[in-house]
Design brief:
By secondary structure, this protein is α/β, with parallel strands linked by helices. 38% of the residues lie in helices and 24% in strands. The protein has a single domain, classed as Rossmann fold (3-Layer(aba) Sandwich). The chain is globular and about 40 Å long.
Length: 184
Amino acid sequence: MAERKALGGTDILGSILHFYLHMWFFKIRDLLIPRGPILEYAGIRPGFHVVDYGCGPGSYVLLLSQMVGGKGRVYAFDIEPLAIKNVKGLISRAGLVNAEAACSDCRTGLPDNSVDMVLLYDVFHALKEPDKVLRELHRILKPEGALSLQDHRMGIKKAINNLTKAGYFRFSGKGKRAYRFLRT
């Protein structure tokens, strides 16, 4: 039984089961609520460099790749190795040359001021160190960059407070399914 425990005491089989249940939930969600309108509100344009932070199984990666085009770039980050394995498989099967995925619990390894847009979808409520993550996202965003937030576990007041209290971002507006914040 001890060999089933990962570092930190997490049950590996439970973690795997949890990931695959989430993956199927997101597939069903994506069929019922298409991701395109959410990304349209974010304002992604051809040539953008976009980070999908907390990408999960990659619900946005293929569409993002199309939206940013050949001169753009998509970076997908997640703390879960199974998620990154899944996203790398999506990237490979689709033959995407403008997308990559990597494990990260905070640091992205991207240069300062190199990203036009950060997506923080369905993950903010689960971050262990949200201030560190926001500092990293602020660092990589260009001065005119924006962050798009969607989190079904947060109302607008809580989302605005959580994203603006450290002074890295300011609230810019609310779409049908996402909030927009600009880099300060």
